[in-house]
C-alpha cells in the first residue's frame, strides 16, 4: 500500500466523525452566544464578549501545542524513532506557565481589557489556559494516534459542557459570572475523556519523535505561528476598524460583518481538521505533493463556488437578514469569500509545512501573511477595496513562503534534522 493510499484511507475514515463533532461545536458556540446576549443584555454581554475573545486569542496561540503534538506523535508512533520524554509533561508545563504569566502580568493589561469583573476574569483566564495546555496535548495525541472517534468525542464533550452550562444559567437566572465560568469550563473535557475513554488513556502518554528540548522548541515556534493565525483570523475585524478611521462607520460595520460571515463556512470546520491534515501529510512520506493536492483543490473549489454564490445572492441575503444598513455589492462579497479561501489554503499549506518539520518556515509564512495584510489595509483607497486586497494578498504571500520549503522537501523526517 502506498503512503498516499494509506493517508487517503485514514483521512476518509476521519471525515465523518470529525465533521459531526465540528457541527456540534459550531452550533453550540452560536447558541451559547445567543443565550448570553438574551440573558445578560447589552451591558452584561459586552463584559462576557470581551472575556470570550480574550480566552479565544490565548487558546488560539495554544493551538500550536496541538499541531506540534500531532506531528511529533504521528512521526514517532512506531516507537523506532521516539527518543524524547512523553510530551504530555511538557504541554502541561507550557499550559501552567502561560496561566502563571497571565496572572503575574495582569496588573499591566487587565485594566485595559476588562472593565468589570477584573479579578475574576484574570483568575478564570489563567485557570482556563492552564487546563487548555493538557486539552491541546490530548487533542494532538489522539490525532497523531489516528483515534478519530475519541478525538471527535473530545470536541463534542467540550462543546456540550459549555452548552449545558449556558442552558442551566438561563434556567436558574444566572448572571455574567456564570457565563465567564462557562467560557473556560469546556477545557476540562480532557478529564472526562481520560476517565471514560481507553483510547484517550492510551494516547495521552505516547512519546514524541524528538527529544524533550527539541519538542519544546518546536512547540513554542508552532505557538508563535498560531498567534499570528489568531491575529489574522480573530483579530482581523479589529485591524479593519483600527485602519478605517477615515471611513464611514456604517461602511466599516458592514465590511466587518461581511468578512466574519464569509470566513466562517470554511475556517470553522478547517480549524477542527488541522490534526487530520497533519496526520495525512506525515503519513504521506515521499508522496507529500499528492497528499497535499486533494485538500488544496477541494478547499479552492469550495471557495470558488462560494464566491459565486456570494456574488449572486449575498447582497440580498445581507440586507434581508441584517437590514438595509448592511449593503455591499456582490463583487465585494465575492472578493471577501475568495479572501477567506486564500486564508483556508494558507492553513492547509501550513499543516503540510509543520508536518515536514519546518517549524520556522511555518511560523514565517503566517507572520509574513499577517504583516502583509496589515500593510495592505493601509492602502489609500476605499475601505471595501483595501480590505478585499488585504484578505487576498496577505495569505498568498504566506503561501509563497510555505511553498519554498514544501517544494524542496519530499518527505517528513525527524524534526531535529530540520530548520
TrEMBL record:
The keyword Membrane applies. InterPro entries: Poly_Biosynth_Transport. The keyword Cytoplasm does not apply. It is a multi-pass membrane protein. Coiled coil: none annotated. The chain crosses the membrane at residues 18-37, 43-61, 88-108, 120-138, 150-172, 178-200, 220-244, 250-270, 291-313, 333-354, 361-379, 385-408. GO terms for cellular component: plasma membrane. This is Polysaccharide biosynthesis protein. It comes from Gordonia aquimaris.
Amino acid at each position: 500500500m502506498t503512503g498516499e493510499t494509506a493517508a487517503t484511507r485514514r483521512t476518509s475514515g476521519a471525515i465523518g466523525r470529525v465533521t459531526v463533532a465540528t457541527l456540534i461545536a459550531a452550533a453550540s458556540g452560536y447558541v451559547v452566544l445567543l443565550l448570553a446576549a438574551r440573558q445578560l443584555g447589552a451591558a452584561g454581554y459586552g463584559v462576557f464578549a470581551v472575556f470570550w475573545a480574550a480566552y479565544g486569542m490565548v487558546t488560539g496561540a495554544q493551538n500550536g501545542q496541538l499541531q506540534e503534538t500531532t506531528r511529533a506523535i504521528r512521526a514517532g508512533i512506531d516507537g523506532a524513532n521516539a527518543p524524547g520524554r512523553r510530551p504530555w509533561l511538557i504541554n502541561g508545563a507550557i499550559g501552567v506557565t502561560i496561566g502563571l504569566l497571565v496572572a503575574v502580568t495582569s496588573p499591566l493589561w487587565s485594566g485595559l481589557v476588562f472593565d468589570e469583573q477584573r479579578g475574576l476574569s484574570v483568575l478564570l483566564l489563567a485557570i482556563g489556559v492552564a487546563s487548555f495546555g493538557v486539552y491541546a496535548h490530548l487533542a494532538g495525541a489522539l490525532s497523531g494516534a489516528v483515534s478519530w472517534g475519541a478525538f471527535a468525542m473530545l470536541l463534542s464533550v467540550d462543546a456540550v459542557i459549555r452548552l449545558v452550562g449556558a442552558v442551566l444559567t438561563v434556567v436558574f437566572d444566572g448572571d455574567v459570572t456564570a457565563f465567564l465560568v462557562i467560557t473556560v469550563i469546556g477545557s476540562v473535557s480532557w478529564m472526562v475523556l481520560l476517565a471514560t475513554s481507553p483510547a484517550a488513556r492510551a494516547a495521552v502518554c505516547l512519546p514524541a519523535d524528538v527529544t524533550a528540548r527539541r519538542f519544546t522548541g518546536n512547540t513554542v515556534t508552532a505557538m508563535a505561528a498560531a498567534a499570528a493565525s489568531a491575529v489574522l483570523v480573530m483579530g482581523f475585524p479589529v485591524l479593519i476598524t483600527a485602519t478605517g478611521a477615515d471611513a464611514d462607520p456604517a461602511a466599516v460595520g458592514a465590511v466587518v460583518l461581511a468578512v466574519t460571515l464569509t470566513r466562517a463556512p470554511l475556517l470553522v470546520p478547517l480549524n477542527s481538521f488541522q490534526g487530520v491534515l497533519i496526520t495525512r501529510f506525515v503519513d504521506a512520506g515521499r508522496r507529500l505533493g499528492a497528499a497535499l493536492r486533494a485538500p488544496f483543490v477541494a478547499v479552492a473549489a469550495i471557495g470558488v463556488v462560494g464566491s459565486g454564490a456570494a456574488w449572486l445572492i449575498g447582497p440580498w441575503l445581507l440586507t434581508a437578514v441584517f437590514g438595509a444598513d448592511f449593503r455591499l455589492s456582490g463583487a465585494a462579497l465575492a472578493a471577501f469569500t475568495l479572501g477567506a479561501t486564500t486564508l483556508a489554503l494558507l492553513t492547509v499549506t501550513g499543516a503540510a509545512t509543520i508536518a515536514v518539520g519546518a517549524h520556522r518556515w511555518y511560523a514565517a509564512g503566517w507572520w509574513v501573511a499577517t504583516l502583509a495584510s496589515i500593510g495592505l489595509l493601509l492602502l489609500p483607497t476605499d475601505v471595501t477595496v483595501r480590505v478585499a486586497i488585504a484578505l487576498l494578498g496577505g495569505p498568498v504571500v504566506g503561501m509563497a513562503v510555505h511553498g519554498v520549503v514544501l517544494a524542496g522537501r519530499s518527505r517528513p523526517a525527524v524534526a531535529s534534522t530540520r530548520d
